[in-house]
Specification:
It contains three helices and three strands; from the N terminus they run H-E-H-E-H-E. Helix 2 runs parallel beside helix 3. It has 77 residues and is an alpha/beta fold. It has one domain.
Length: 77
């Protein structure tokens, strides 16, 4: 089962858990620790600050779906 179908199933069953590292948390070390703990703890997906380098870094650390959040979303485009 793909990570997206796993996410869809978790949402449909109302068993999803999203771990948020912080809208303005761009500290790579802190975000890394949070997302690693999220995956180890059974989270369904993570939400991190919208920064391209941070997203690339987190993608290499975990296999969970990644959501991004930003105060100014146009900065991520």
């Amino acid at each position: 089962m793909s990570i997206y179908s796993q996410l869809a199933t978790a949402l449909a069953e109302r068993k999803a858990l999203k771990v948020i590292s912080g809208l303005t948390n761009f500290d790579t070390a802190k975000v890394s620790a949070i997302v690693k703990a999220a995956q180890a703890g059974g989270a369904t997906f993570v939400d991190i600050a919208a920064d391209q380098a941070l997203v690339r870094h987190v993608r290499q650390l975990i296999d969970l779906p990644i959501c991004v959040s930003a105060v100014e979303p146009e900065l991520f485009v």
